[in-house]
Predict the structure.
Amino acid sequence: MIPVQFDYVAPATLAEAIGLLSEHQDEAKLLAGGHSLIPAMKLRLAQPSLLIDIGRIRDLAYITEDGGQIRIGAMTTHYQIESNARLKEICPLLPECAAAIGDVQVRNKGTIGGSLAHADPAADWPAAILALDAEMVVVSPQGERVINASDFFVDMLTTALEPNEILREIRITQPPGKAVQSYMKVAQPASGFAVVGVAVNLIRGDDGRCQSASIGITGVAAKAYRASGVESSLKGSTLDEQAITSAASHAADNVDANADIFASADYRRHLAEVYTRRAIQSAVAKL
Ligand SMILES: Cc1cc2nc3c(=O)[nH]c(=O)nc-3n(C[C@H](O)[C@H](O)[C@H](O)COP(=O)(O)OP(=O)(O)OC[C@H]3O[C@@H](n4cnc5c(N)ncnc54)[C@H](O)[C@@H]3O)c2cc1C
């Protein structure tokens, strides 16, 4: 299908993009990698009259470190994160999650900012971003504000972004050296999207017990969530098989699971439990 007619602008600076979005608001859409927006436009699920292509703004794609924080520009592609040697060292969950997204073409064009702003319930990034307690830096004519990952995802395809706001940067506190991480997913065979995706970020204390556990789960519900029941069950445990299996049984506690042609709600809940167990086991194996 061909999208309805639209105008197209490609601002060279972020300031220009902010001005354009502010002027046109709901009639306009930002275009990042286009890998979610263009299919939505072809299906007429989105019909913006103006596309603001932020792909020409050079200083929106970067991976840097600053004062113990990892900073990732919103236009950084999945592939740039997947292939970043420093991230593999200091925060392997990010490249691991990036590598699990779609296929090579999708990872070469799709951006972390576009994925987070789109908030697809089956997207991979939200699980990792929640498990890492990331902060989203967003800009508008009113200036800059920071939104915690736990407040960012509001509902299916809905975030805390206002219509005149642009996601500029994702900030992650560098995990301590003793943190171990893992991302595991069941991929929808046709698209690669997560039927269930589980991101684990664990720290073991000097006493050998779990000091902290952050678990983000995507694909199961309308929006990705932190599996707080799993986290509290793991905390203080010895991270043995019994503790992991028992903690993972809380993966879908109080969750209204999605059902579709590929997986019923019960099957998704089951997969959430199984893959939470496997993702924790995989993280613990790195200790
Ligand atoms: C065949 C295929 C397979 C895929 N498989 C997977 C998969 O396995 N896992 C997965 O997670 N994803 C998958 N995707 C989605 C892919 O990761 C997309 O790239 C991503 O969801 C959107 O990123 P984008 O840069 O393409 O954003 P776009 O499509 O350009 O934009 C998406 C939305 O976000 C808004 N937006 C973009 N950037 C910003 C910003 N900086 N601030 C505010 N709003 C913004 C846009 O206006 C639009 O509404 C797949 C896509 C395709 C086509």
